[in-house]
Task: structure prediction
Amino acid sequence: MEETVTTSTDPSEGSGDIRYIDTEIRLKLYRTMYECRVLEQRAYDLFMQNLVKGTSHLALGQEAIAAGFGVAMRQDDYTFCTYRGHTHTYVRGVSMESILGELMGRECGLLRGKGGSMHLTSVEHGAMGSYAIIGAHLPVAAGAAWSAQYRGTGQVTVCFFGDGTTNIGAFHEALNFAVIWKLPVVFVCENNLYMEYTAIKDVTAVENPAADRAEAYGLEPILIDGNDVDVVYEAAGVALDKARKGGGPSLIEAKTYRHGGHSRADPGKYRPDEELQGWLARDPIPTYRERLISLGIEDESLEAIESETDAAIDAATEVARNSPPPPVDIAHIDVWADGSASWRN
Result:
């Protein structure tokens, strides 16, 4: 069941040659992507029912990046991500009900309902936080990698960020120190072509905002198709192995596309319809499903994954819906280092 997957020089057009990936891993990649999709879709549905408070930033269309890295990473590795981080948190082993509960502000939530959509964190699973300040987490991720290097644990930090972050000073500072100290960190730019409402190409001096800047820091330019989970998984494996063996950091730019606007308040009308339709036709999940079928994987196997996942998200939704709000007496817990605001008085 061996196959050659092709990656063109333009990742927006499709993919290039990578090594053989066995069937078990490919089924895991498909399951993980599909789980990420239904989780994000359910988050959207709950938001439209006014059950998710505040805003939310969905990764519908970008699931291949979270899934590819999630499957490739070691259990004790670290993940740092942005406010568009539901899927990155989920692939580290956090349950659906705890994520949905957190989005709805319920007691069963990952942070007992106090963090919400933009602050998912689970140190237990190596999910070291979703960061709402653009670029703020890159130096923190470098620090986590430095800690692992100092302790000799073999852990690797993977730091995900959007294309707009590449024009933030913290991006350049973190890259510089990561290279100088040969830190075990993989920086992953999820380039979905738009910052918030502005096309990244309109405000950036280079065509590929991350890959074209890699050589300035002595790094190999790595530009991949972020909608092809095989390509992402392969690139993740190479970069993680390099970092784990002491080879230092990598900077990967993964071209992808969000199906909706920047947040639930954004209809995304600024994007040309032809562009949107072209990327929707390259939806990573049905595209990968077709590939698996062409490789001889039975449709029944994929349907089983889908039905199991659909049942799981329904069950998780009921748990989250029925969970009560967090008790008032935890309002000042986990706010200050001593667990309260009392030191200020």
Observations:
- Strands lie at 78-82, 127-131, 157-162, 185-191, 222-225, 250-255.
- The chain is about 40% helix and 10% strand.
- The two ends are 67 Å apart (CA to CA).
